[in-house]
């Protein structure tokens, strides 16, 4: 789970003209009457990471979380290979998983994806239900990543943690922590840093 300190840090809207007038940790996610409220943090995380089309995006939660985010699959990508974002993957947890934990179901879902689709990576999104239950997606992803020798990235952006914007930031944090700097590119250009 993401620490409160990290969430407070990410709530600092440096581009917001009135952010300096707010108390520390207070964000800009209060909707105004008549305006679209946007989506939850889970929605923002998916929208931000869907351009990684060579990766499978696995929703660890009830099937309805996958269905609620289906329209975000139109996110464009420049990837020319098999676009995994056009398929929906979920662990589809049920009442028993809520009571006894869904870690085994998550592990089995990752094994199934690797056996049948062989993606370059898997993003595993926590949802409100799995975050509240306390499923340890960090440990499950770490063990599965070692087992399958591909990055399996936990994305801690359960819907209740905040706005779509915060979800985008949490997705970026997951990429920075688990992908950036872990592998050298096959080729570089004069413009690469």
User: Strand-and-helix sequence, N→C?
Assistant: HHEHEHHEHHEH
The largest beta-sheet arranges its strands as 2-1-3-4
Structural class, please? alpha/beta
The biggest sheet amounts to: 4 strands, parallel
What are the low-pLDDT stretches, counting only 5+ consecutive residues below 50? none
Distance between the termini: 31 Å
Radius of gyration: 17 Å
CATH architectural designation: 3-Layer(aba) Sandwich
Q: Average pLDDT across residues?
A: 84
CATH class: Alpha Beta
CATH fold label: Rossmann fold
What is the helix fraction of residues, given as a range? 25-40%
Overall morphology: globular
In percent terms, what proportion of residues is strand?
5-15%
Number of strands: 4
Give me the CATH superfamily: Nitrogenase molybdenum iron protein domain
| Assembly context of the chains | single chain
Number of domains: 1
The DSSP helix count reads: 8
List the helices and strands and how they pair.
Elements: H1 4-10, H2 41-49, E1 55-60, H3 63-68, E2 89-90, H4 95-100, H5 103-116, E3 121-126, H6 128-133, H7 137-148, E4 152-155, H8 164-178
Structure summarized in a few sentences:
This protein has 193 residues and is α/β, with parallel strands linked by helices. The protein contains 8 helices and 4 strands.
Structure, explained:
GO terms for molecular function: oxidoreductase activity. Pfam families: Oxidored_nitro. InterPro entries: Nase/OxRdtase_comp1 (IPR000510), NifE-like (IPR049939). This protein is α/β, with parallel strands linked by helices and 193 residues long. It has a single domain, classed as Nitrogenase molybdenum iron protein domain (Rossmann fold). The chain has helices spanning 4-10, 41-49, 63-68, 95-100, 103-116, 128-133, 137-148, 164-178; strands spanning 55-60, 89-90, 121-126, 152-155. Strands 2-1-3-4 form a four-stranded parallel sheet, with helices on both faces. It is globular, with a radius of gyration of 17 Å.
């Amino acid at each position: 789970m993401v620490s409160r300190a990290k969430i407070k840090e990410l709530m600092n809207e440096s581009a917001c003209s009135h952010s300096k007038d707010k108390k520390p940790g207070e964000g800009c996610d209060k909707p105004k009457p008549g305006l679209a409220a946007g989506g939850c943090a889970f929605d923002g995380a998916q929208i931000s990471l869907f351009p990684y089309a060579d990766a499978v995006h696995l929703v660890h939660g009830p099937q309805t979380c996958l269905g609620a985010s289906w329209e975000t699959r139109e996110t464009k990508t420049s990837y020319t290979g098999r676009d995994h974002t056009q398929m929906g993957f979920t662990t589809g947890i049920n009442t028993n998983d809520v009571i006894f934990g869904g870690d085994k179901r998550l592990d089995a879902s990752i094994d199934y994806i690797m056996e049948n689709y062989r993606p370059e990576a898997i993003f595993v999104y926590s949802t409100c239900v799995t975050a509240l239950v306390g499923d340890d997606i960090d440990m499950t992803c770490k063990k599965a990543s070692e087992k399958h020798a591909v990055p399996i990235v936990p994305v801690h952006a359960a819907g209740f943690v905040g706005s779509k914007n915060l979800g985008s930031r949490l997705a970026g944090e997951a990429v920075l922590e688990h992908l950036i700097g872990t592998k050298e590119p096959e080729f570089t250009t004069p413009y690469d840093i």
